[in-house]
Amino acid sequence: MTDIYNEIKEAEYVKRINDILKDIWPNIIIFENLPIIPENAPPTPESAYIARKLAFEDIKDHQEKNTPIPIKDSWQHYWFKCCTSDKCDFIFKFLKSKGIDRENDLKKICSSESELFHALDNDAETKQF
Prior knowledge:
2 strands
């Protein structure tokens, strides 16, 4: 029996990520080889684990190319919503056994080094406030 968490952890390329997503996340939409950000909370701890990976790790486009695809800010926004929603409480109870801490993830997302922070900092609409 394969350990899905190890498969997710070892996946580096978007094609492999998409294959795993299709297996563990019902109704996930893949458009132009990239997963579309869902509107709902992750349905399972496994899908939450992969959403977290997309939020914090560089995912490469192709095996020949080592260029990360620019999706971290969008997935950090999604993961932030999950971290702050009581709909994800059951997920975080399980993910804690995998060494994932909700508060630490929020600190990473809110830090000035996060992709989301830089995306918001560069967004003209945000500067109006």
